[in-house]
Design brief:
There is one protein chain. By secondary structure, the protein is an alpha/beta fold. The protein contains 18 helices and eight strands. It has helices at about 1-5, 20-35, 55-65, 85-95, 115-120, 145-155, 160-180, 195, 200-210, 220-230, 240-255, 265-270, 285-290, 295-300, 310, 320-330, 330-340, 355-365; strands spanning about 10-15, 40-45, 70-75, 100-105, 125-130, 370-375, 380-385, 390. Helix 4 runs parallel beside helix 5. The chain is globular and about 80 Å long.
């Protein structure tokens, strides 16, 4: 957090996917001590038997008195929040946060988010988080320009520089086109997602793994088992790493001799509490079966993370704080490659990519005495032996 503040970051989100209040408050205090100017406490939304309006209201009420929490936001990473649920959830949260501002961050994964954002504005949510141009929609956030237009059409005042917003959207549109990346498109509603809550990337990976195992026809069975395993493990919110943990265990349960015959180390760590306290109690029989394994006894004695002062002793003296942090968490060859690459470019104009690609191609060809590029809007002449630019406009 010290390094982030020193680099100019002033606004932070404190998020714990297990909704551990003590962890959230400790994180917020660390950010404030480092100089964070604005700290937003995340209320991570999901659908389960225990995540009702009262659950989120209690959580917000525990965090609201802290001077290290300036704002709240509902984080809906899977786009599960419906307009109907928003109309009960948002008032319950607003009544618990003591007048502190509330924001909404809801992904478009199953097509609900644009409508939910409109309902949120009617209910007093002050900030709707959005994305721009090609980076919006899909499994991202709602399109900024469309959201602004819809809010104004419904009678809301949105104080924003429309010209600047259009330029930002056009930049990302141009970037996607130059890099050959698909722009986000509006998603269709998928009711099944409300049950299994696996994001698109996790579903794609699962399908690929089943195909490799020649078990593609078991996809629906795995998805049913995902719902069962999630309930047995105390309804973890399906954000990384929990979707991967749950669907891997579901697959093991289906292909094994019996359920929980095979258990991954990550599931064991989850049950041991390495990720924090589960929202709801783990089903006792499942917990006993997992913790009775010899591997569980081994993992229960894992040492805690090494403090930075001790960790520094593993590296050469004199490392900057930035390089130390990178080397502490990344493979050495990757950090070496980053340092060798030098500083990142300060500016990138995606419209220049075709020209730059052309020049790289020319540089790879045998030398020529003179090369001329002539097209509408561009005239470029290069001359040997130094290939100096003799005329460019």
């Amino acid at each position: 957090y010290d390094r982030l503040v020193d680099s100019g970051i002033s606004r932070f989100v404190a998020l714990d996917p297990m909704h551990d209040v003590d962890a959230l408050l400790a994180t917020s205090a660390m950010i404030r001590k480092a100089g964070g100017a604005e700290i937003i406490a995340a209320l991570t939304y999901t659908v389960s038997a225990v995540h009702d309006d009262a659950f989120y209201a209690r959580l917000a009420a525990q965090l609201a008195p802290s001077a290290d929490v300036d704002r709240f936001y509902i984080k809906d990473p899977a786009g599960l929040l419906t307009p109907e649920r928003a109309r009960t959830l948002i008032p319950a949260i607003r009544a618990s946060i003591g007048g502190k501002p509330l924001e909404l961050h809801s992904h478009c994964t199953i097509g609900l988010s644009p409508l939910t954002c409109m309902a949120a504005a009617e209910l007093g949510v002050e900030v709707i988080q959005v994305a721009c141009g090609a980076a919006s929609n899909g499994t991202s956030l709602p399109d900024a320009q469309r959201t602004v237009a819809n809010l104004r059409a419904l009678g809301h005042r949105v104080d924003i520089d429309d010209h600047a917003l259009a330029r930002v959207a056009a930049y990302f549109d141009g970037l996607a086109e130059a890099e050959g990346l698909p722009p986000g498109t509006p998603q269709q509603f998928d009711a099944a997602f409300l049950r299994h809550q696996l994001a698109g990337g996790a579903v794609s990976t699962l399908r690929r793994q089943l195909a490799e195992l020649k078990l593609s026809e078991r996809f629906d069975d795995v998805m049913e088992e995902v719902c069962r395993v999630r309930a047995e493990l105390g309804y973890p919110i399906m954000v990384t790493p929990f979707p991967q943990i749950v669907y891997t265990q579901a697959l093991y349960n289906l292909i094994g001799a019996e359920r929980y015959a095979n258990v991954s180390d990550q599931v064991i760590r989850y049950v041991l509490g390495s990720f924090g306290r589960p929202t709801a109690p783990i089903e006792p029989d499942v917990q006993d079966r997992i913790l009775s394994r010899p591997r569980a006894r081994e993992l229960s004695t894992e040492p805690p993370p090494m403090p930075p002062s001790e960790l520094r002793k593993r590296f050469a003296p004199g490392l900057s704080d930035e390089e130390f942090l990178l080397r502490a968490v990344m493979p050495a060859d990757q950090v070496d490659a980053m340092l060798a690459a030098g500083p990142a470019r300060r500016h990138y104009n995606p419209t220049m990519r075709p020209l730059l690609s052309l020049l790289r191609g020319v540089a790879a060809r045998p030398p020529a005495s003179r090369i001329v590029f002539d097209k509408p809007g561009l005239h470029l002449a290069l001359r040997s032996p130094l290939m100096e630019t003799t005329d460019a406009r």
